[in-house]
Amino acid sequence: MNTENTKAQMRKGILEFCILSLINEKEMYVSDLIDELKKGKLDVVEGTLYPLLTRLKNGEFLSYRWEESTGGPPRKYYQLTEKGKLFLTELENTWNELTSSVNQITKNNNLTSAPENSFEPKN
Prior knowledge:
One of its GO terms (biological process) is regulation of DNA-templated transcription. The protein is an alpha+beta fold.
């Protein structure tokens, strides 16, 4: 089984939540989003980010404004709409429930506190 593929799928599953959380803090330009996601060890390329932002905009969760740039073309800055803020609250509640459930399950199965030599027979 390819653990890298599984880890990538887990990251993709929470990417929307992370993006909305970042934009909720302040309006953001795409390169700002990429930088912040990298700081959180979620490496995302523009080819992944732009379709997601477009989908969120089409769902009326995001809006944007254009701002002239001194060093190039105008920049598109994204911000959450009221609908986006409500959606983010729902995602946050779901995330909290999910992490609580996963933590409870993994702690009950000793996955998070397994000793290094867990495959050795116990005496």
